[in-house]
Design goal:
The protein has 13 helices and no strands. By secondary structure, the protein is mainly α. The protein starts with 6 loop residues before the first helix and ends with a helix. About 1% of the residues have low confidence.
Length: 405
């Protein structure tokens, strides 16, 4: 069997860890930063934060095209440099308007970079270990999610200095750029440059239903990741639980990648996807249901117990579920693409996630402003349930009919 853990693969995973560490270092605290520094309301916070995801979404199709049509290493280095430089913009943004502009524009290089880096990871993997390797590649994201929010919240609790976090994100992203600069990439010959422009150069049209299905799950995580800290503080009274939640979620993600590696190696993609989305649904329901029961008169004596059980057990379950579901969907999308469409396939699944994330951030802020955070998180449970139903009724059969053997 060909070697999975080669030097270039490890380097790309290290760079991906740095990329997502810088990202998650800021994500859970930005709503608090906007509220405490600029006095932003809930709906304004949602509007500001959604700009990042919307811009990433707009860049995804073009980044997939460029990754498939030009030398991938050059595209990767330019995207990573731009991603790192934008962290300096947060340091210079002294008004809400300037911060909104910088945050919104920053989504562009992030969207392009995640496509470029994951496509390079596929290129440096042996073909016989690709399904498994893509699953393990996500461990670098998960490890960053486990460490970065906890580290950020602890650092802020000790220093109350958001500027320090911005400097740290800049330094860590720069380190990732340096690591990626040492990767040796032998990309497959770009075969699209002589073709007429078509939709498939920017979006893998053959996988459209997979994309729609993924958007429902992105919606759920968009609300969860961006409003968890402020929900815990304002509604549940848990000022220090956000870092632990992300850590437990990441432990679930990592366990799922290890547990699901064999199924991915055997090509059981629909099995992993099915298992993951159902586990996630249970996690989202527990997250909102148990604290709600704890607030009722029947369970008043055990309210804090119900809150803690629902809050922390949901983290593990959501991590386990997404860890099974995400690599399965990514591999399904790649299985529907030719070798010179890998960048487009990667960008398509990320576009779908971004659409869901952006709608979740925007809708979550608006719903929380008018109906409260409980209503926003119940919306998450409903959206996840719709995604599960759509998958079992349509999407899995859609994939089996259209995959390329």
């Amino acid at each position: 069997m060909e070697r999975l853990w080669n030097r270039n693969y490890i380097k790309v995973m290290t760079a991906n860890f740095s990329l997502f560490f810088a990202f998650y270092l800021l994500t859970p605290l930005l709503p608090l930063y906007l509220h405490e520094t600029f006095g932003a309301t809930k709906d304004v916070i949602g509007l500001v934060l959604s700009g990042y995801t919307i811009t990433a979404l707009l860049f995804r199709p073009f980044s997939g095209y460029f990754v498939d049509s030009f030398p991938r290493k050059k595209v990767l280095m330019v995207c990573f440099a731009a991603f790192a430089i934008f962290f300096a913009g947060y340091l210079a943004a002294g008004t809400l308007l300037l911060f909104t502009i910088v945050r919104t524009l920053h989504g562009g290089p992030f969207g392009a970079l995640t496509v470029a880096n994951s496509t390079v990871a596929i290129d440096v993997l042996p073909s016989s270990r690709r399904n498994e390797g893509i699953g393990y590649y996500g461990l670098s994201n998960n490890l960053a999610m486990a460490i970065a929010p906890t580290f950020a919240i602890y650092t802020y609790a000790q220093t109350h200095n958001f500027q320090l976090l911005f400097w740290l994100a800049l330094a860590i992203a720069t380190f990732g750029w340096i690591v990626d600069a040492t990767v040796s990439v032998h990309s497959p010959k770009q075969g699209k440059s002589d073709r007429v422009l078509s939709l498939d150069r920017f979006f893998l049209a053959r996988g459209w239903l997979l994309g729609i299905n993924m958007a429902f799950f992105g919606f759920c995580f968009g609300v969860m990741s961006n409003y968890l800290a402020i929900y815990g503080k304002q509604v549940l009274g848990m000022t220090g639980g956000t870092g632990t939640w992300f850590m437990l979620c990441s432990i679930g993600l990592m366990l799922s990648r290890i547990q699901g590696g064999k199924a991915l190696r055997q090509g059981r993609l629909t099995h992993n996807a099915s298992e993951g989305m159902v586990i996630s649904l249970v996690g989202y329901i527990l997250f909102i249901l148990l604290p709600t029961l704890g607030g009722s008169q029947l369970f008043t004596l055990h309210s804090s117990l119900f809150t803690y059980i629902g809050y922390y057990s949901s983290a593990i379950l959501i991590g386990l579920g997404n860890g099974h579901m995400w690599p399965a969907f990514q591999n399904m999308m790649i299985s529907m693409a030719h070798h010179n469409e890998r960048g487009t396939a990667n960008s398509t699944i990320l576009i779908s996630w971004d659409v869901g994330m952006g709608l979740g951030i925007l809708a979550g802020g608006a719903i929380a402003e008018h109906y409260g955070y409980n209503a926003a998180f119940w919306t998450v449970a409903v959206a996840n349930a719709i995604g599960v139903i759509l998958y079992f009724l349509k999407t899995q059969f859609f994939f089996l009919r259209r995959r390329i053997e």
